[in-house]
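Here is an idea for our session: we take a single protein and study its fold together. Start from the sequence, derive the backbone structure tokens from it, and show both lines together. Once you have written the record down, we can walk along the chain together:
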Amino acid sequence: MKEFLSKAKLEKSIVNQAFGDFKVYPESIFVKNGAIVAMARNDQEKFLIISAPAGNELFDAFDGKNIASLKKAPLNAINAAVLRRYFPWTTPISLRDRKTTIGCGDRLGLASAGHIAAIRQFQATPVLAQQSIRELDMTGRTYRQVVDDTVFLVFQTGFQDGYGADGDHLKKISDIDVALAADMPMITLDLSDVMLAAAGDWDQKQVDEAFAQLDKVECKRVMDSYLGKKFGHGSAEFEMTAEIIRRCTVMYGKALDFGKTVYDHLKSKRGNKFDLEISIDETTSPTLPSHHYFIARELNFRGVEFTSLAPRFIGEFQKAIDYIGDLAEFDRQFKVHADISKAYGGYKISVHSGSDKFAVYPTVGSMTDMRLHLKTAGTSWLEAVRVISRRDPVLYRKIHKKALASFNDMLRLYHITADITKIGDVDKMADADLPALLEMAEARQLLHITYGPILKDPELRPLFFAAMHKFEDDYTCTIEKHFEKHLRLLGVPEK
């Protein structure tokens, strides 16, 4: 490392003539196979710098421009693959053996340095690359780009403790294969399209008629397996009645069969090196504890090894704001969900739309004994907007106005209850008052759901990313502080 730093000083004047002044990220300096590799940045971009003797294999593997005996390598797919090959710890891994995992969705490909700075202090593992198909469409990215962006930031920070990558809310095997091809070992299987959620609101006659149409042998099996079974204690105890069993079979049977198909597919592709999360949270009605019990046992019956399961919890888990609902009732029901997970496989309870739900974090952490997965995404985007509101008020006002213009369109994709008429006119606000909007529920939700139109806007996009590059240190510190709050309130033990 000393050799690299002294060499960099000697040759910096040569590099500066072509690329301007630059700085090296100190945690990214590594010696490998006779070459020294580090991440650097100037006022316009980030890049890799490689130093090695002539003919060095690693030096030659990187795509880039030679300057004296140094190479400037851009952050592209070729060089991300080189990092994964020579520095395997930059590749995402299965986290099925990690107790506490935190999904750190990064819609910008810029937040992982802050996530890592926070997570390094705690006994938890991050899922740094996490995107849904909807988010890819909104941001104009691919799964390959999502993972590659994370690889570079993991290398930049020298983070070698392992991290996950999640193809989030996937519904089709064809989409799952795209995520797997991009080195994403975690698949969140969204069963909303194959489960018959509407049956949750049917009267019993409709349910019984639908149940009668199913395979008779299967109907007898589920009745013999569950009728009269009880779970829980006291007021939280439930009994599996014939009516509940029929409704669960009608609602979930086909979806659980598909879960088995996906599990077998993942196993054929990756052996045991994957994490399957089962998501049943994309419904309008909460997942009853009796239904969770049925789903967990039926997955076990089918031989599906799943790392985590995401129920739809009681109350409102709306984007960007704290929990809305009866906290006492949440605690009562959540304990049953946690107890079911402990009794039937010890899988993690996964909390979706989990960012900023500070009111329920103590319950979530304590009742799961920290065996949990917390999924966040939009909060890191909002922290980027927060930084811009502090540092570039002119740009913030442009972003805010684009959000207002796009709000009604985005309501077709996101469920929120924000009354945006409560937000003042940003043109009449002082610059110093703009950051306070990021503390206002209505403004947070407005900005949260309109990230797609903002990032796709041909005028705003380059301005936004130029600002984020300029204010990189501020963003990293802001993300670190924000995620520290999440982890502390969850009760994650410090290292």
Observations:
- The chain has a mean pLDDT of 95.
- The chain has three domains: 2-86, 92-165+379-495, 191-201+207-376.
- DSSP finds 19 helices and 16 strands in the chain.
- The two ends are 27 Å apart (CA to CA).
